[in-house]
Amino acid sequence: MIHIIGAGLAGSEAAWQLANRGHQVLLTEMRPLCHTAAHTTDQAAEMVCSNSFKSDDPNSATGILKAEMQRMDSLILRCAEDTRVPAGNSLAVDRVAFSSAVTQALRTHPNIRWETAHATDPDLNHPTILATGPLTSEPLTAWLSAITGCGQLHFYDAIAPIVDRDSIDMDIAWMAARYDKGGPDFINCPLNKSQYETFLDALLAAERAPLHDLDTPYFEACLPIEVMADRGRETLRHGPMKPVGLDDPRTGHWPHAVVQLRQDTLAGEHFNLVGFQTRLKWGAQKEVFRFIPGLAQAEFARFGSIHRNTYLQAPQVLDSTLHVKSVPNLWVAGQLSGVEGYLESAAGGLAAAFAVNRAARNLPALPFPKETVLGSLLHYLAHASTKDFGPTNAMLGLLPPLPDGEIDIRGLKRSGGLRAVKAAKGAAHRQRALASLEAHLRESN
């Protein structure tokens, strides 16, 4: 029997992978017996922040990672494709339908037994994958810290609000994707300079929810909108409110700033404010975000919020297969391991399942190749500097450099500029990654 604790994205993927390989899996989830600061259901793979699995660009890090996961029959990506909603060149889902699909697959699998319980002291006589996520309960966090001899780390993460589609004024807003990539999938609310300044003043003056631990930092890749605004009055125009590539059909020009909203449900009745994660109090959110043209009468299906996330000091604790180096029979997957993002979390669950499958068959550990995006991410977790380690997304910069001369950089610059160079590098990384993965899968079987 293999024990998986946590039915989030990582735990769900791990359970599916192991069950499909013939293992008997006990999947323990504490919800609804115990609640977290962000979850609202007892379903598997609940997406509490964004509803996006990032870019589908085949030559981006996330595009390559998706290809790797699809090659290994990822349950998470299969359910995501089945419940996807329009989002330009990104993979976004109806979060309720997606979670229901994952839950149904797990609960009906003959090799998976679902248990509702609060695990605080796991029995490590069985191979165990800890996939409890960034909102791991305090008792289990204390147990993990004690058994590994390494204190955990924290950061604050925030959630963006969601509004009712029918409350958006489409006489002001319009549908389009940036540079028209992927179709008219986003609702765009334009702001002129005066409107931007008014919104910014209201945002900076609005009341914020108190933080309980002032020493805990924010996650830099997901800063609250008001914290970004604190850094300068032009920060938002170069971040989530950048107007680049969005021609207002009424003027034919880019607006001074823009707020984009992405579809959140298959029926299209809810849209979330892209990049507008916030710690403003709920009353302040309703007041401030209605300063945005097109949202003056916005009805909120969900307000934004902030919560503290937990992650391990991975380079001290984990090896490149997500095994806890000092503790037999224990692996850690998902955001608790130090990756950041839904896609990366699910990929970590897949990798942990591969490692546990080998261990259960008394085979030696076999890390994924560093030439793959998944392998490069896990290698980084195990070998990064402990001095400045923080949650990590999949990035092409984690991959080993391409061989000298493989790409004619000078020629590409002359013919297509830096964009052509970037595309060629991405394509070369993809080709090498998928070839490396095939060789790895042949070796691991």
Description:
The protein has about 450 residues and is of the alpha/beta class. It folds into two domains: about 1-150 and about 310-400, FAD/NAD(P)-binding domain; about 160-305, Elongation Factor Tu (Ef-tu), domain 3, CATH 2.40.30. About 35% of the residues lie in helices and about 15% in strands. The chain contains twelve helices and 16 strands. It has helices at about 10-20, 60-70, 75-80, 95-105, 140-150, 195-205, 225-230, 280-290, 315, 340-360, 375-385, 410-445, and strands at about 1-5, 25-30, 50-55, 85, 90-95, 110-115, 130, 155-160, 160-165, 175, 185-190, 255-265, 270-275, 300, 305-310, 330. The strands form four sheets. The chain has a six-stranded antiparallel beta sheet. A hairpin with a 4-residue loop joins strand 4 and strand 5 (about 90-95). It is globular, with a radius of gyration of 22 Å. The mean pLDDT is about 90.
**Molecular shape:** globular
- End-to-end separation in angstroms reads 21 Å
> Quick one: how many beta strands?
16
Number of domains: 2
In CATH's first tier, which class of the largest domain applies? Alpha Beta
Strand order of the largest sheet: 10-11-12-13-9-14
The CATH homologous superfamily name of the largest domain equals FAD/NAD(P)-binding domain
Number of helices: 12
Tell me, rounded to a whole number, the average pLDDT.
92
Question: What order do the helices and strands follow?
Answer: EHEEHHEEHEEHEEEEHHEEHEEHEHHH
Name the poorly predicted regions. Answer: none
State the share of residues found in helices, binned by percent: 25-40%
Q: What is the fold-level CATH name, i.e. the topology of the largest domain?
A: FAD/NAD(P)-binding domain
Structural class: alpha/beta
Strand content: 15-25%
Please state the second-level CATH architecture of the largest domain.
3-Layer(bba) Sandwich
| Rg over alpha carbons | 22 Å
Q: How is the main sheet built?
A: 6 strands, antiparallel
